[in-house]
Amino acid sequence: MDEVLHISRDELYQPTVDSTLAHAKAVLQHAQPIVEEPVSPLRRLLLSHLFFTPLAGLLGGLTTWLILEPWLDDTSESNGAFFLVFPMTAVLIVLFIYLADAIASRRFISNVGRWFRGVGFTLLFSLIAIIPVGLILALIVVLPSRPDFTQADLSQWPGPFFIGFIILRSLAWAVYGGALGLGMNLIKSTKGQRRASVMGGLVGGVLGGLLFDPINRFLIPSSEQGDVMRFVGLCTVGLSVGIFVALSEQLGRDGWIRVLTGPLRGKAFILYHNPTIIGASPTANIYLFKDAKIAPEHVALQRVGNGYELIQSRSDAPVMVNNLAVHRRRLVSGDQIIIGDTILLFEERAKKRTAPTDQRIREAKVEI
Questions:
Q1: pTM for this structure?
Q2: Is residue 20 over pLDDT 70?
Q3: Which of 84, 145, 241, 317 could form a disulfide with 158 if both were Cys (CB 3.0 to 4.6 A apart)?
């Protein structure tokens, strides 16, 4: 590191110039060269939302099937266990997604409250969703060519009715997917998080619901039990919800922080909260543990206009951006932030930049 104290002209005439100089000296005297640690492709994959969120959703659907299948009997005209399939699937998918995220970010105790709230609201909305789902499935009676439902062989069902039945089932699962997405991020979340989870749940529910009946019709048409159908369908619902929740988050993000060193190296955190607090406290939005030089609330990333600004939280918590000690700094994509012995990389979505007003006027004159 170049042993030069960098201080701006504005800082020179501020009353806090002495503390600024002391801060910069402390950084130069105590900072040791910090080297970015290599991240293997496997580690990057395991810490990616696009991997562990779909996997968690798949495990949630599979667990639902393992719990309920012994109690389901397709030959019985009345089986109360069938009413548990929708709400239990939603609750377990949300719970497994929470657990996967906690494992990836190492935040267990601080997330317990979120788990209770998320699972509770998911269960509540899933129970409320029974009403619109019941109305959707009641439309089966108006479908053309309605067969005798005692006929177990789905290949004997008329084509128009079968297609309509699939559409109605997909709509029903879409309702439950939307209830799932809203419940998991209703409290203490941003609009971006809620939008991503609801859209992911809706699309995942639709795609998962599409696969239930074709499994029995085309693969095992003579089976009297729908165990295989439910196994594939529930797992697909969970996988699809996980995929589209993760995709919605990825596509909707504006800025994110990638950890380059330490136990979380390779993990990316989307900047949902404003401000986003980074520190060694489990309650911080980005929790960096096993670094004794990091304060409980070390820095804050504040959304300003269409960009982000880094703000030092306390004077005894030095921060460096691109090897320069800073108190406050407007960030640009690619900036490296060093706090304690941890290197973070700030990245943001490329923005469409408009030409300055006078330039646009000149261009308009040329066109005329």
A1: 0.74
A2: no
A3: 145
